[in-house]
């Protein structure tokens, strides 16, 4: 688990005096590749002035057999692990290919509204097999990063980069393109 700050419901950044948000990324699968870990750490550092960030990595389920039953069992196992990590008082956003597509500016506006109404956000990324329907139903928002297909480990990096970009937009700060 990569933890970049201690969790807090609502706090102000000591340096800027700006309201920060508490974000937990709950992801199935361990990051093994060093280049992904480095990219995640890079964006986690960049996010520190804007948000409290915690990344929770859950073990992937064991796929036993083939077919629909094996897939359903795997997704249920991973889904149960995810549900145990979800905070009752957090706004839940699930990343899924069939979710709502937003431009970065739209996502920034969405997050800005959450800073005041629900300062805790749980972002969920499933494993290689996807997510159980139960998790999608528990979410406040199903979000799609793109119509393109990404490895779920790369999706974490893309998510953190987009969060950083959103907070730069919220604060009216320039972002190097």
Briefly characterize the structure:
By secondary structure, the protein is an alpha/beta fold. The chain has 5 helices and 7 strands, in the order E-E-E-H-E-H-E-H-E-H-E-H.
**DSSP summary: helix tally:** 5
Percent helix range:
40-55%
Extract low-pLDDT stretches. Answer: 1-17
Share of residues in strands: 15-25%
Q: In CATH's first tier, which class applies?
A: Alpha Beta
Give the CATH topology.
Alpha/beta knot
The outline comes out as globular
Number of domains in the coordinates? 1
CATH superfamily: SPOUT methyltransferase, trefoil knot domain
- Write down the Rg: 16 Å
Looking at the overall shape, the CATH architecture is 3-Layer(aba) Sandwich
Quaternary structure of the protein:
single chain
N-end to C-end Cα span = 30 Å
Helix and strand composition category:
alpha/beta
Mean pLDDT: 87
Q: What order do the SSEs take from the amino end to the carboxyl end, as H and E?
A: EEEHEHEHEHEH
How do the strands and helices of this protein lay out in sequence?
Elements: E1 2-3, E2 11-12, E3 19-28, H1 34-47, E4 51-58, H2 68-85, E5 91-101, H3 104-117, E6 120-125, H4 133-138, E7 141-144, H5 152-171
Helix pairs in contact: 1-5, 3-5
């Amino acid at each position: 688990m990569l933890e970049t700050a201690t969790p807090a419901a609502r706090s102000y950044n000591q340096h800027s005096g700006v309201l920060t948000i508490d974000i937990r990324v709950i992801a199935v699968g361990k990051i093994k590749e060093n280049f992904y870990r480095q990219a995640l750490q890079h964006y986690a550092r960049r996010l520190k002035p804007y948000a409290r960030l915690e990344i929770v990595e859950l073990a992937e389920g064991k796929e036993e057999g083939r077919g629909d039953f094996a897939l359903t069992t795997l997704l249920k196992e991973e889904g149960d692990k995810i549900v145990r990590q979800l905070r009752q008082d957090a706004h839940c956003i699930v990343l899924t290919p069939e979710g709502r597509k937003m431009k970065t500016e739209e996502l920034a506006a969405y997050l800005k509204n959450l800073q005041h109404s629900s300062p805790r956000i749980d972002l969920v990324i499933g494993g290689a097999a996807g997510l159980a329907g139960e998790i999608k139903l528990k979410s406040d928002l199903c979000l799609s990063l793109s119509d393109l297909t990404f490895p779920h480990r790369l999706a974490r990096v893309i998510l953190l980069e987009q969060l950083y970009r959103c907070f730069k937009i919220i604060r009216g700060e320039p972002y190097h393109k």
